[in-house]
């Protein structure tokens, strides 16, 4: 089992989730997160005062997949999220020791 984690721009969420659905992904987890990379933060003006915003809103997606599906799913996410500009995001994978569906007790691939 593999856990595919992607941090993407919020505007890319719909295209990424649609692409994953078309590829047959049955479930995923979405979290709103904040951070920065090469693009750093930015400044905003509020009531005449300038403020530095050090983090940028992002979306974190997590998808559990079988080992054989990992390369294809990573490519689906990258293709759907890419704009070619700084801040498009990152995708990484991790090995998962075990998976259990809480409702039924199913384990492994059948728990996906």
TrEMBL record:
Pfam families: P-II. Keywords: Nucleotide-binding, Phosphoprotein, Transcription, Transcription regulation. It comes from the Bacteria. Homotrimer. This is Nitrogen regulatory protein P-II. It comes from Brachybacterium huguangmaarense. The lineage of its organism: Bacteria, Bacillati, Actinomycetota, Actinomycetes, Micrococcales.
